[in-house]
From TrEMBL:
Organism name: Tenebrio molitor (Yellow mealworm beetle)
A single Gene Ontology CC term: membrane
Family: Belongs to the ST7 family.
Transmembrane segments: 15-38, 441-463, 469-488
Entry protein name: Protein ST7 homolog
Keyword tags: Membrane, Transmembrane, Transmembrane helix
Localization per record: Membrane
Short name of one Pfam family: ST7
Main location: membrane
Keyword Ubl conjugation on entry: no
Membrane topology: Multi-pass membrane protein
InterPro entries from the UniProt entry: ST7 (IPR007311)
Length: 506
C-alpha cells in the first residue's frame, strides 16, 4: 500500500496530460478508421473481426448437438435467394449517351465493375469454340476485355478489315463509336444484314457437329441482340409503333439469351409511352406470374395501372373519413407490394433523390434497379393524373407492415442484406447509394467517440488545472486500488505465510 502511495505521489501533472492525450489520440484514430469502414462497407470493422474470427474460436468447443442445429439453420437460410446482378434491359449506348454525359460533366457514369460485367456478357454471347483460327473473331475476343474504349474501337475496325462479315465488330462500333442514336442505328442496320447472312449459313450446318452447333447458337445470340438494340433505337427516335412491333416479335423467340435480356420490360416501357394501357395489362398478365422472377418494372407497372383507375379522384382527407373503397384498396395494396419488392423507387419517382444515368447492370430490389426503373418510367407516372399523389400518400405505409424486413417479408422473401455492397460496386462514386433499412451506428463507433471525447476533455482539464486534476486522479486511483488491496489481505489471511516456500520445495 505504501509503495503504491509513493508511486502515485511521484506522478506529475505532465504525466496525466501525456496519458490522457495519448489515449484521446489513439481512440480518435480508431474512431476515424471505424467511421470510414462503416461508410464504405456498412458494418463495423471490430464487429466483423469479432463475429468472423473471435466468436468461432470461442465457440469451437460447443457440443455436436449445437453444431447440428446451427448447420440446419444455416441450410434453411441458404434457401433464401442470394443477390444476383442482372443485365439492365434498358441500358443506354456508351458512345451516344454515356460518353456525352462524360463530356458534359467530366464524371464517369459507369464503374469498371459494371463495364467488366458487360465485357463478360459479350464474350459469352458473341464468341464460341468455332472461332479458333478466325483472325477477326480472335481480335474481338480480346477487344471486349480491353479497358480503354479507343483500343476497343480500333480493334473492331481491325476485325472488319480482316472480314466484313464480323457482326460483333459492328455491335461494338454501334455501342461505343457512334455519338448519336441515328449513327448507332445506321451501323446496327449494317450489322443486321451481316448477322442474318451468318445466321442462315450456320442454320443449314448446325447439325454437323458440336462446333457448328455452337457457332449457330452464337449467330442466333448476335442476331437477337442486334434486333433488340435496333428496336431500342426506334424507341429513342420516337418510332414507337415500329419499336413495339420489333419487341413483340422478339418476345416470341426462345433461345437462352432471352432469359437474360428481359425484352418484355422493353415492350412494357414502349407501350406505356404510347399510353396503350390495355396492351400493357395483357403483357403483365403473362409475365406477372408467381413462378416467374419479379422486377421493379413488373411490380410498379402493376401498381401504376391500378392507381390509374382511382388516382384522379383520390383525396387523402376524404379517404381518411369514409375509408378506402375496393378499387382504392386494390391500388394501395399494389403500391405496398411494389414498395416491398424495391423500397428505393418511390424517392426517385417523387423526386426526393436526384436521378443519375442507369448502370448497364442492376441488382434486383437494389438502388441500381430503382434508378434504372425511375429513369425511364418517371414520365409514365407523371402522365397519369394523380398517380404520384397517391404514391406519395401511401408508400410509407408499407414499412408499418414490415417492422423487421431483414428477418421476414410479407409478399416476398426477406429483404436481402447484400444490396448495399453490390450497389456501391455498380453505381458511380458521386452518387449517394440508397440504403434500406437504415442502419444504426454500430456500438463500437459510439463507444470510441465517447472514449475519444472523454479523454480529450480530461487532457484539456489536466492541462488547464494541473494541480486539482492531479489530486483528483490520485484520489480516483486510490479508490480503485482499495478493493484490490482488500482482496490481497483476505488471501494473505487464509493462506499460510510460508506457502510459496513449500511450493518451491515440491
Amino acid at each position: 500500500m505504501w509503495d503504491s502511495t509513493m508511486f502515485l505521489s511521484t506522478l506529475t501533472p505532465k504525466f496525466y496530460v501525456a496519458l490522457t492525450g495519448t489515449s484521446s489520440l489513439i481512440s480518435g484514430l480508431i474512431l476515424i478508421f471505424e467511421w470510414w469502414y462503416f461508410r464504405k462497407y456498412g458494418t463495423s470493422f471490430i464487429e466483423q473481426i469479432s463475429l468472423n474470427h473471435i466468436s468461432p474460436w470461442i465457440n469451437s468447443g460447443e457440443n455436436s448437438e449445437n453444431g447440428s442445429s446451427n448447420s440446419s439453420s444455416t441450410s434453411s437460410q441458404n434457401n433464401v435467394p442470394e443477390c444476383k446482378v442482372w443485365r439492365n434491359p434498358l441500358n443506354l449506348y456508351r458512345g451516344a449517351e454515356y460518353q456525352r454525359f462524360y463530356w458534359a460533366t467530366n464524371k464517369e457514369p459507369l464503374t469498371y465493375y459494371d463495364m467488366n460485367l458487360s465485357a463478360q456478357d459479350h464474350q459469352t454471347f458473341f464468341t464460341c469454340e468455332a472461332d479458333a483460327g478466325k483472325a477477326e473473331y480472335e481480335i474481338m475476343q480480346t477487344a471486349w476485355r480491353e479497358r480503354n474504349p479507343m483500343v476497343r474501337i480500333k480493334a473492331a475496325h481491325s476485325a472488319l478489315e480482316k472480314s466484313a462479315e464480323c457482326a460483333p465488330a459492328y455491335i461494338l462500333l454501334a455501342e461505343e463509336e457512334a455519338t448519336t442514336i441515328t449513327d448507332a442505328e445506321k451501323i446496327l442496320k449494317q450489322a443486321l444484314k451481316v448477322a442474318e447472312t451468318n445466321y442462315r449459313k450456320s442454320q443449314t450446318m448446325q447439325h454437323q457437329g458440336s462446333l457448328m452447333e455452337a457457332q449457330h447458337r452464337r449467330d442466333t445470340n448476335v442476331l437477337i441482340y442486334i434486333k433488340r438494340r435496333l428496336a431500342m433505337c426506334a424507341r429513342r427516335l420516337g418510332k414507337l409503333k415500329e419499336a413495339v412491333k420489333m419487341f413483340r416479335d422478339l418476345t416470341k423467340e426462345v433461345p437462352p439469351i432471352m432469359n437474360v435480356l428481359n425484352i418484355h420490360e422493353n415492350l412494357i416501357e414502349a407501350l406505356l409511352e404510347m399510353q396503350a394501357y390495355a396492351d400493357v395489362q395483357a403483357v403483365l398478365a403473362k409475365y406477372d406470374d408467381i413462378s416467374l422472377p419479379k422486377s421493379a418494372t413488373i411490380c410498379y407497372t402493376a401498381a401504376l395501372l391500378k392507381a390509374r383507375l382511382v388516382a384522379d379522384k383520390f383525396s387523402p382527407d376524404i379517404a381518411s373519413k369514409r375509408g378506402l373503397n375496393t378499387a382504392e384498396m386494390a391500388a394501395v395494396e399494389a403500391i405496398h407490394r411494389a414498395v416491398e419488392f424495391n423500397p428505393h423507387v418511390p424517392k426517385y419517382l417523387l423526386e426526393m433523390k436526384p436521378l443519375i444515368l442507369p448502370p448497364e447492370h442492376v441488382l434486383k430490389r437494389g438502388d441500381s434497379e430503382a434508378i434504372a426503373y425511375a429513369f425511364f418510367h418517371l414520365a409514365h407516372w407523371k402522365a397519369v393524373d394523380g398517380a404520384l399523389n397517391l404514391l406519395h400518400c401511401t408508400w410509407e405505409g408499407t414499412f408499418r407492415m414490415l417492422p423487421y424486413p431483414l428477418e421476414r417479408g410479407h409478399l416476398f422473401y426477406p429483404y436481402p442484406t447484400c444490396t448495399e455492397c453490390a450497389d456501391r460496386e455498380l453505381l458511380p462514386s458521386f452518387h449517394e447509394v440508397s440504403v434500406y433499412p437504415k442502419k444504426e451506428l454500430p456500438f463500437f463507433i459510439i463507444f470510441t467517440a465517447g472514449l475519444c471525447s472523454f479523454t480529450a476533455l480530461l487532457t484539456l482539464l489536466t492541462h488547464q488545472y494541473p494541480e486539482p486534476m492531479g489530486v483528483i486522479a490520485k484520489a480516483v486511483l486510490g479508490w480503485l486500488s482499495v478493493p484490490v488491496y482488500y482482496l490481497f489481505e483476505k488471501i494473505d489471511s487464509v493462506m499460510p505465510f510460508n506457502l510459496l516456500q513449500q511450493l518451491s520445495r515440491i
